[in-house]
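Comment thread on ticket #2218

A.B. wrote:
> Attaching the input chain for the structure job we discussed in standup.
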Amino acid sequence: MQLKITDYTDDVLKQVSFTLHRGENLVILGANGVGKTTLAKVLCGLIPSECVEVCGINPSKHFGTKRAKYINYLPPKLEVYDAFLSVEAFLQLSHFNTALSIEGALKQLHVTHLKEQPCHTLSSGEAQLVLIASALLHGADFTLFDEPTANLDPVRMRKLFTLLRTDATLPSKLVITHNLDLAYRLGFDVLYLHQGSVAFHGSSEAFFAQENLDALYENSVRHIDGHVVVTL
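C.D. wrote:
> Ran it. Output below, let me know if you need it in another format.
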């Protein structure tokens, strides 16, 4: 089972191709406006294309549980059709993974106290964690996280990092982020987009080699004590 995109081109992206097998993880990096979110939506079938195949189907031509079983996209911000919906009711909408309960997903993220709370009362950080819980409950073969650490304080960011690094509930995770230290510490393979094209696709070790960082980030990023930081 695999996720595959072949020679996809539109107004933003140019000849994008790669394959990810079930059980493999990927970090997607690149500057603002380079097409990372567009790529995620194409892969999930939210933007129709003949260039994508996920577990043998074209996700833009299948709907409901057939597509949901294979791929899931988590946007950078929680949006619901009814802001007064409770957290529990919202999570029930994506509860395809019967091996995990809503209570269990919330417990993993240390937010069980939010279960009965209306979604519109959540802080931005709490809403982000509820989104992550929905991904666990969805349990798709491939899950795309679009800026999952947005709005998280350091403690919650660390907990999310641990979950992304160690979680076995989700077979394959694709993480879009600007947080280079998160990307480095995750150790996933890296896809780097530059001007809409794939400028790098390979191992974390090769991508985060200092000479490669110097070339891609104009000498603005350094390794310091086992972390990747921006030199201000």
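A.B. wrote:
> Thanks. Noting for the ticket: The domain at 2-204 is CATH 3.40.50.300 (Rossmann fold).
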